[in-house]
Amino acid sequence: MNEPALVRGVTPNWRDHLLGFVLAAVYTAILLATSTNLGMNRDEGFYVDAGESYARWWGALFDGDAHVLERASIDAAWENNHEHPSLPKSLFAMSWLAQQRWHLFPEDSMAFRFPGMAMSALSLWILYLFGTRLFGRRAGLFAALSYALIPAVFYHAHLDCFDTPIVSMLLLVTYCYHRSITEPVWAIWTGVAYGFCLETKHNAWILPLVFLVHFVFVAGMERARRKSALGSEAKAASSGISLTPWWLVGMVLLGPPLFIGMWPWMWNDTLQRTGEYIGFHVNHVHYNIAYLGHTYFSAPSPMGYAWVTTLFTVPFTTLLLGAIGIVLRARAFMPTWFLAKVWKSGNPEPDRARTDVLLFGSFFTPMFVLMMPSTPIFGGTKHFLMAYAMLMLFGGYAFTRLCEAFSAELERMWKRPEAQHLLTGFPRGKVLQQGLASFALLGLFLAPAARDTAHSHPFGLSFYTAIAGGVPGAADLGMNRQFWGFTTGSLVPWFNRTLAPSASVWICDSTYTAFHMLQRDDRLRDDIRVAWDLRQADYAIVHHEDHFNIVDFQIWEAFGRVDPVYVLRYDGVPIVSVYENPHRNP
Amino acid sequence: MTESASNSASTPRSRALLVVLFLVSGAALAELAVNARITSEVARREDWMEALAFVRGEWQPTDVVTSAPRWTDPLLREAAHSLIDREMAGRSDNHRYARLWVASIRGAISDEAPEGAPDFERDFGEVHLARYALPTPSLRYDFVDHIREARVVRMDGTRAIACNFTPSFGNNISGGLQAGPLEGPRHQCDPARPWLWVGATTTMDFELRARRCIWNHPEGANPIISTYESVTLGERVSLYGGLWWEQERTLDRGDVDLVVRVNGDEIGRMRHHDGDGWKHMEASIPEALHGQTGNVSIEVTSPAPDWRTFCWAGGMLGGAL
What we know:
Distance between the termini of chain B: 90 Å
Number of strands of chain A: 7
Oligomer: heterodimer
Order of helices and strands of chain B: HHEHHEEEEEEEEEEEEHEEEEE
Strand content of chain B: 35-45%
Shape of chain B: globular
Number of strands of chain B: 18
CATH architecture of the largest domain in chain B: Sandwich
CATH topology of the largest domain in chain B: Jelly Rolls
Strand content of chain A: 5-15%
Low-confidence stretches of chain A: none
Distance between the termini of chain A: 76 Å
Largest sheet of chain B: 8 strands, antiparallel
Number of helices of chain A: 24
Largest interface: A-B, 79 and 73 residues
């Protein structure tokens, strides 16, 4: 059975795949174009180091050096950053190898970032196909675009990191799993995709649990249906639902082998290293993060964190449509017994694959994990972006319903006699009307998101929506200002213009690799040096996060002054202060 | 599968959807409008510069300047240039000042502003400037200002071991989150324990605020004593004390005790418990000593001194100049 189960759903054809590809390609192009003023963050610096290390190994392998498969060679190359799986970093490495050979990108940072961008943009393709398949093309298009235009997504999609690539992988596995419910052959693709997902980031671990809950739901309902349909074999057989969890077989048989197989670090001492990898993330330290005026640094984390930060960072209209979509689909993810007792009639009816349960579960699970008091909350919204992707599918459904209502209303109005002479010469036809209505609403509903996304760059992590009162409102509320020190990149024009020849800068939260990348990219003057000793630095910067205040005060003592020579602002809110050492060599 | 994809504007469901459509469209337009308003009300760098240039023109030696909301502090310091020094930026109170300037945005009110109307107000773009009269300055002697001249010893039983003054910076000058308050010129009490020093620095208190203070990590039950000799005694000693946020925030470490003596006699004490934050105490000077000169000693101990990054500030208040 290859037909969509939901009434508005459309089986994607090659044109849909082409459109999905175009969406992804255009998004990647936009990310590339806008990356030139986005400084690298701390973690990107670590992954550049890892990528270069892995590139040497891959390069030797491609050159036929048999020694690279020896343990010593593997460990030497793959020891670096072995707390995260290798797929994205191997892609960074490949891209870097290609850059060294063919100079594909104008900046080195682009070479490292490109695979992350492409992997992130894949989300749009999958969201379009998934949305189209479930609720129609308008829903798919809205889901893809609204996800792309979430400022946090736009920021993370630029990076040589894993937080938006893992969303693509999670979406891919979820899509395959959904298909496998009615087409068991997709269990193979589910397993393959899960292997890649495991190899991208540890967020993958939770996925089988989500699917299991959904599958129990599906199987329970299906058994009940078949029981009630006894004697009508044709009816019982028509659902196409498989009660055997072939998807689980695929995930178990294919996922771990692919995970181990693609990660050379795991080829030796596999069990011990797997345990080490799991242990690192299960016992992950809590980093400092400000939330509603309090800096959290350990458990318990505030339960409302994921919800409040979502409210404060996702454009409101986008959120509203997602919420409306959930309300409109609510009946479809309720249990049958509940509907029979409490909500006996209405639309929509659940499909046999209980698609809405899967969507809602995939939306709610990352948020729920963040509600656990033991879950660290550092990283802003980056750990639950998958929830946004799922929410955007509900938003796509809401968008479709509103477009239909709008089109119908237009049609009704245009049929009025008094409208006829006014519309002379105006293009007519139901399809055209629907198209115009859809595009008008698409533009209107996505305008705030487009504005927010454009306005957020290159301060993505510092951005807050109108609900929070914008960036200054969030500062009033005591929300996190930034993390990872990426805003050093926004100081480049000032540095180039102001710093004396060979001046040294103490770089606070930036890593050397991230700072040096500004020079590798020919953005920052080559003569500017990094200072490791605060007292000896000509200049010092502090990234404004509440817990970094101590660094501000260290600089006051080291330099004997408290007045920065420059404060980088975003909507009037301090992002980075630059101090000049009065004792520096002129 | 009963949901219908066809629509008719005449059904209640369709009418409800039209209402939702109207609301969402309104929300989108409102969101755009609110964003436009937020960005249009942002205070420009020039606004801050003009406001503080005005303050500089009116500045008197006993003036102090602050800003509201608190997150604007870097913007204030950038615009104020040399008007603000470490002592002002890390002050615990306003006892040494006679007038308070407040530069504020977005209608914020400084928690330092006294009750009552300001005696001066003016807008500079989006920056609102106000000036308040403060009570007559009462600070006679600041312990942080004079820590270099103080005699500092650590007690080993009944034996006093001098903490020698070192005018240079310590080794801990790499800076960074883990480094804590920077050690500048200081009385070094034990070279083998580099954290055992007494000297002026700026710490980050429990509320993550700047506090210019005297680093005085306790050694244990044996006190470290800082003695200010021949101080003109006023009416009371005002002291503040607290720990570097990173070492107080876990709320599970040892107390720190501080004792104030005048001419060897205890006149007050304070016990700092994790979570107390930047704690304040006052100790009265015996009336017979008002206006006299005397020795003021501050003793710091802790029954569990591990990670007790204690820092204190304060001075002599009241009495004739």
